[in-house]
Fold these 2 entries.
Entry 1:
Amino acid sequence: MEEHSEKAASEKKNIFRKQKLQRGTGRKFRSLRMEFAVLFFALMAGAVAAMFLANNAFLERYYNREKQDTLENTYERLNAAAASNSIESIAFGNELTQIANRNNISILVIDEESQTVRAMAADVDTMMNRMWDNILETTNELPEDFDEHKVASWQEDRHAPNYYIVKRLQTGDSTRVQIVLDKGTGTQYMERWGMLSNGSYYLLRTAMDSIRANAMIANRFILLVGGSVILLGLLVAMLLSGRITRPIIQMTELSKKMRKLDFSAKYEGNDRNEIQILGENMNDLSETLEETISELKNANARLRQDIEHRDKTEAMQREFISNVTHELKTPIALIQGYAEGLQDGMADDPADRDYYCGVIVDEAGKMNHMVSQFLSLTHLEFGQNNELNYENFDITELVRNYIRTGGLLAKERGIQVKIESSGPIYVWADQFYAEEVFQNYFTNAVNHCDGEKRIDIRFEQKENKVRIGVFNTGAPIPEESLPRIWEKFYKVDKARTRAYGGSGVGLSIVKAIMELIHQDYGVHNYDNGVEFWFELENK
């Protein structure tokens, strides 16, 4: 149940991840560079539009305020000159001329006797008439139903006044500031008039049309320059946005590869800012993830190997127990049968008792030998006490010593043992394991030797190895059995193996030892026999 729930949870997680990826791929993404350029364009266009609107809404008012301040400053300069009796001096006249020309102001000053003191205007008579209209307060207010389109019809009405007051800006005891409309020309003027400190009257006037014209010129200039700046800014924005977004795009591609567990790509920018720090952090993250995933994969591989080794070990244990039980069943049954025969008095004759006891002793010896081989194979396969002790020794001497002590059985069976060697051959190996391999080969050869009853022990020198071969005459091993003779408990001729007390693990012990020392071994069929061989290093 637990494995099923984990599998279901994993499947749900995979489905959720796929749906998320599908939503992500279906989403429309916009280029960061294009967004940056559009944002820059919008800011520039908004700034130009704001300047245009501000110019339309406030420039004329600002200009009016500035003109009003200019008229006031001019008045203050006139009043100061009148107070110091320098109003008619040449120096002040030059100064006044500069003020008038610079600020487009018409100036008229008359004394108490209506004599002109200063006159700086293109039409002095008009200025004089306006002076008296203001002094006498004969200028009417502009009618509420005034319409600029009616100016032309007003110009034809000779009975209508020539001037109207459009707006009063300042009213005082000695000063009046107002905007008037000239019916004849349709022009508005800002006027400041009143009395100076010496009792003289003054009139200052500037045309309002120049203010409107300047405002319109300024608006056209803003649109012209603003449009050029917007286009130039858009080009610069595209260039700058490309430079700014290039490292971000690079990191985006880097993150895509990281998502696919490809950590080969690295951020290679050199921006010397926060983006560079982010890129270096991405590189560090990539290396850390690569190391972590590598460690996880290695740990997972080791875990799988451990699980496989455990399963293999358990299977080997089960197989070993089953095979041992099967192999021991026959000798145990024989021992039990003959022991019960002795117990029941079936062997009263001394010869029979000796026979029964001989069978019991023989089967017990076979069991002891079999158990010893089982234990040796178990130690080899499960890695118990498998420490190797390499030393340099004469392999021919080892073989001769074994034949002198362990070759008695061959002599009893009439087998001729021949060692084909002309002198000592030194090898590097574990002497105990080397003797164990030779012992199993020799014992196997003795038990299967037929025909000429001959065993040949051969030594073949190779480049840096020595091949030791044990040949016995007799029937070759069937071809179908050759791949399986190294398996535990496999027997080509079960009846014959049982006859000499074999357990079927001798060659398995050879296989385990040779794989432990990482050397080659094998078997070769001949017409008149079989040769088993193994190799050892001699350098």
Entry 2:
Amino acid sequence: MEGERDVTYLPDRKRAPEKLGRVLVLGLGKSGRACVEYLLAQPEGRVSELCVAAGAGNDDARTWAQHVQARGARVVFDCEDVSRLGDAFDVCVASPGISQFSDFYQSAAHASAEVISEVEFAWRESAAGARWVAITGTNGKTTTTALTAHVLKECGLRASAVGNIGDTCIEAVAAGATDVFVAEVSSYQLASTVNFAPDVAVVLNITPDHLKWHRSHENYAAAKWKVLANLHTVPGAVAVLDATNDEVRAKVREIKALSREERGFDYVPVGTASGLRGDMRAACGAENAAFVGDDGCLHVALRGAEVCTGAVSDLQIKGAHNQGNALAAAAAAAALGVPAAGIARGLASFPPLEHRIEPCGVVGGVECYNDSKATNVDAVLAALAAFDPARPIILLGGRDKGTDLEPLVEACRVHARAVVCFGESEPRFTPAFKPLEACGIPVERAGGMASALDAALALAQAGDVVVLSPACASFDEFSCFEERGDVFKALVRERAERAAGAATSESAAFESAATSAAAE
């Protein structure tokens, strides 16, 4: 391991060795390629050998491999056992798509002094004075990451949204144009962190997900909590924790039981078990808190000072879950010393992101929303509640994840006007939701997404809301949730144009008839 070697670190970086030695990059995804490009650009002698262990190669990958091999890298496709690549590696940077429990990853671990993620590598290579905000959680990461970066940039900081959004972390480090890295970090990336120590760590929520990669919920949660592992090493570090979530609230209780000296960082609970209007200072004596006040404002109390960071009514993003995201972003910005007025301006000017309760058109007076990113039940629960008191017609379907549907059925009973089930999951979803018809909530079935939209519009009246919030993966019809959302938006545009054309024709016919009648 690294601790057993005599390592000299570069003085102007976080924890970057002067000599990286033999480096292995595991996998050729986006982050793997970015790491290779960064390593090839290092001064002569810093990397003694660069090896890439890749899976099956397609034409694009092999063309790219030829390019980097001409510059000194070695790329091996169909590599299942890293030990055949030669002597031990000083460090391995693993792509997030490769499970730490896989034989491939384990072979790299046996052949390397350490295995780290691209996030860890980028943090080590970043400037000593750079600040990092790491944002994780099962749902809401992308919105909160983009929102936090937006707020910081609006306030004049050189901030970038990186990680699973925007550039990879190492690309942003290489570009040298960022002082505050706002990183969306997944459990995959956190699982292979060692020294990663952000200035602010945000944990939004933890609910069961990615069990195939992590093998158990316990492993998944443990990977998420690694974001706090090294906070005590950063002066002034702050953890922002969603206390409305049961699992995160349990961690808040655990942290609260420690003295400030024992934990080594401050923490800000967002809301309480009763919701976002709960103040954890009053609920259990926490020192800090973030909550929605009785005045309808987003309040952040940190280190003895409480500020209002804007009104809920000023937010462009819909739903209680986005109020929680805004509170988390506000608390993160406050932890970095951003003034309350600047935070309020940034929160108010942030528009909805693509595929996340995104307004995408009106068809005959029916508002349509694209929430294609809602690939699990928890995300759909948030979407359903976001339109209260309106009751949306919800489109559910795609590739079934096999999750328990009972909470979603109950949420549709409370919040939905109608349900349309479609795609591969339809044979399981439709029977599960059929009992809602006894409550006066229509449940329709459809083949694909286009016919599901048409079924929803047939049920809708002017003033209604139709939402694609599938609770499923997209891979039965589409390559990714982004493609699914883009196609849905195109379908809405087509139907809107058709409805507008029909209305124009009907109006013209009426005027013609009226003119004829007048002439008679």
